[in-house]
Amino acid sequence: ETGVTQTPRHLVMGMTNKKSLKCEQHLGHNAMYWYKQSAKKPLELMFVYNFKEQTENNSVPSRFSPECPNSSHLFLHLHTLQPEDSALYLCASSQVGEGTTSINTEAFFGQGTRLTVV
Amino acid sequence: GQQVMQIPQYQHVQEGEDFTTYCNSSTTLSNIQWYKQRPGGHPVFLIQLVKSGEVKKQKRLTFQFGEAKKNSSLHITATQTTDVGTYFCAGSTSGTYKYIFGTGTRLKVLA
């Protein structure tokens, strides 16, 4: 148990479906992340939220829509996905300091959601 | 954009042999972290290096951070079957709140 919980663990969805992935962290961290892990591009950073504000969007297609209602919860809304979007989606959290000289502390990962798009 | 490469991509060793993976960043880092992901699992933090030239040890694992803070290595002495998994380095730059993960090295240990 890492303190970061992701649901569901497995998801199969059609290309016309709409679904959401949920992540909850119980560590009191102030930053949360979505990563995509596939065979072709391991651990690809998708989104970063710091203090509930999105600070990074790594050129992710608009069919992926993140939502961070508070510092403990992070969602990834999915719609009209493609088969190549099938992957393991990992959520992580960390405690980051403020300022340009701050050092990022370790990231804690959830168990991931294994997504299959058919 | 910032890239972090690791070599080798795969490594098969006999149990008891040593193993090393190398990590290279396209930009200077403020710190580097190492993670291990077991098959079917999620990445788990191993260690963080911050200082130029820093060396840290955890039992059979030795971690180094290069003088220029652009490269790092992980060395495992006398591998065991429990060392099986993928090892990732992750680089950070101060004030960016993000970790750029390396491509990973998948280690297989043959008993």
Structural description of this entry:
The complex is a heterodimer of chains A (118) and B (111). Chain A is an all-beta fold and 118 residues long. Chain A has strands spanning 4-7, 10-13, 18-25, 31-37, 44-50, 53-57, 64-70, 73-79, 87-94, 108-109, 113-117. In chain A, 0% of the residues lie in helices and 54% in strands. In chain A, strands 2, 4, 5, 6, 9, 10 and 11 form a 7-stranded mixed β-sheet that branches. Chain B is an all-beta fold. Chain B contains no helices and 11 strands. Classes of the chains: A mainly beta (118), B mainly beta (111). At the A-B interface, strand 4, strand 5, strand 9 and strand 10 of A face strand 4, strand 5, strand 9 and strand 10 of B.
Task: Summarize this entry quickly.
The complex is a heterodimer of chains A (118) and B (111). With 118 residues, chain A is mostly beta strands.
